[in-house]
Amino acid sequence: xxxxxxxxxxxxxxxxxxxxxxxxxxxxxxxxxxxxxxxxxxxxxxxxxxxxxxxxxxxxxxxxxxxxxxxxxxxxxxxxxxxxxxxxxxxxxxxxxxxxxxxxxxxxxxxxxxxxxxxxxxxxxxxxxxxxxxxxxxxxxxxxxxxxxxxxxxxxxxxxxxxxxxxxxxxxxxxxxxxxxxxxxxxxxxxxxxxxxxxxxxxxxxxxxxxxxxxxxxxxxxxxxxxxxxxxxxxxxxxxxxxxxxxxxxxxxxxxxxxxxxxxxxxxxxxxxxxxxxxxxxxxxxxxxxxxxxxx
Amino acid sequence: xxxxxxxxxxxxxxxxxxxxxxxxxxxxxxxxxxxxxxxxxxxxxxxxxxxxxxxxxxxxxxxxxxxxxxxxxxxxxxxxxxxxxxxxxxxxxxxxxxxxxxxxxxxxxxxxxxxxxxxxxxxxxxxxxxxxxxxxxxxxxxxxxxxxxxxxxxxxxxxxxxxxxxxxxxxxxxxxxxxxxxxxxxxxxxxxxxxxxxxxxxxxxxxxxxxxxxxxxxxxxxxxxxxxxxxxxxxxxxxxxxxxxxxxxxxxxxxxxxxxxxxxxxxxxxxxxxxxxxxxxxxxxxxxxxxxxxxxxxxxx
Lengths: 296, 301
Description:
The structure holds 2 protein chains of 2 kinds.
Chain A: H1 2-17, H2 21-57, H3 75-81, H4 84-117, H5 123-135, H6 138-160, H7 168-192, H8 197-204, H9 209-238, H10 241-246, H11 254-264, H12 268-294
Chain B: H1 14-53, E1 56-58, E2 64-68, H2 71-78, H3 80-112, H4 116-127, H5 134-145, H6 150-157, H7 169-194, H8 198-205, H9 210-238, H10 242-246, H11 255-265, H12 271-300
Antiparallel strand pairs in B: 1-2
C-alpha cells in the first residue's frame, strides 16, 4: 500500500512542473489539506472553550444540581453574596495575591536587572537557580515548603518558646517563592531590547545613578514590570496545590474552598463563583494586554 | 561619587578602574542579594529538607524523629502500592504527552500558516482558557461528563446511549490533555513560525512525497518545539492529583494522590516516606528529561 501512495504522490511534482495545469493541481491539494487542518483546529477550539461556555451558562440555571438547563435564575449569585465564608475566602485570596505580587515583583525586577545588565561570576549558576522554580513539579515544592515551615516552627518553639502556626503568612512566603522566577523571565525579556547607551547619556549629562534609574531605566522597563506583576498576581490567584499544603487548617482561601466543595458535589453556587473568577481573570488579562501594547 | 568619573575616565588611571570595578560589584551584590537570599531560604533549603527528611524515621504524631534510616527507600521500592503509583503516573504522563503532540501539531501548523493578524487572534484564543482557574476548568468537565450531564443529554437527544465517563481513567486522561494542550501548542507554533515553508516545495521538487517531506524536513526542523512542549506537559502531569481526584474519582493512586495522603490526610501523616517519594520523583524526572534531550538531539544530527 505504501508503495502505491508513494508512486501516486511522486507523480504530483511531475504534473505540477508542466506549465498551465501546475497551479490548479498544487492549489487544490493545498486547500484540501488546509481545510482538514482548519476543521481539526476548529474542533480543538471547541474542545478548549466548551467547558467555559457550559460553566458560565450553568451558573444561571434553575436546576438545583447545576447540571441541566431548567430555566434562568440569578439565585446562585445572590446566595454567593450572602455566603460570608466564600466572601472571606475571596478577600484572603486577593490579599495574599496583592502582598506576594508586590514582594515578588520587587525582588524579581532587581534580579532581572542584575542578570541582564551585569556580567559576574556565578551568573550561569544563578540562571539555573532562577529557572528551577518554573520547571519543578508544583507538588514537590508544596511538600518541601510544608516540611520546611514545620521544621522552622518546631525549631523556633524549641529555642525561643515561640509558637507559630501555618496560615496566611506561610501562603504569602510560598507564593512569592514560585512567582519570582516568572517575574524575572518577563522583566528580562523587556530588558533585552534596552539600549544601555541611554543610561550612559543621562550620566554624561550629570544625572546620578538614582536619577538615571528613576527617569530613564524605570519608565522604559515599566511595561515589562507590569506584565510580570500581573503574571505573578494571576499565578497567585490560580494556585491551588501549594496553597492547600501550606495554608494549614482554618485558613480560608478561595481555590481550596472551591476544591473542598467540588469534591463533595456539583452545585450551581460553584458555577457562579467560577464565572466571577473567570470574569476577574479576563479583566486582568485585558489589563496586561494594554500594558504590553503601551510598550509599542 | 565614583560613578561621576565614569564619562571622564579618559585618563584610564588604575585607581578609577579599580573603583569602577568595586562600584560595579557593589551594584551586582545589591541587586542580587535580596532575591537570592529569598530563593536560598524558601526554595533551596526546603528542597534540602525533604532530602534529609527522606532518610529519617516517621514521628509518633506526624513529623519526624531524628533517627537515620534508609527504610523509606526500601519501602518505596518493595511495596507494590508505591511502585504501581510511579508506573501509573509515568504511563498517564506519556499518554498525555503523546496525545497533546498529536492534537497540537496540526493545530499549530494551521495557525502558523495564517496571516499575521489571524495568528495573533488564534494564539490569543489558545491562551484565553489558560488564564482561567485550572481547578474551575477541571470542575467544568464534571458538569459535562456527569451521568446526567451535558454530553449525555446531547447523546440521548440524538438517540445514542448515554456513557458513564466521569470517574473513569478516560475522564482523567481527557482532563489532563485538556489542561495541557495550550502548553504544547505554543512551543510547536513558535518553531513552525520560524520554519521556512518553501523547504517543503523544495523537497517536493526533489521527488519527496508530502509524508516524506514532513517526516524528513518539517518534523526534524520543528523538533525543538515538540521537545519543549513535551517537557512542559510531562513534568506537571507526573505530579498531578487534582484531575485524577475530581474526574477520575480517585480510583487509581498516582504519585500526587499518595503524596497528598502521606502529607495531609493520613493519621498520623508519614512525612519521611512522602519526602522519599518526592525525591525519587525528582530523580526520575531529571533522568527522563536528560535521556529525552539526548535521544532527540542525536536524532537531529
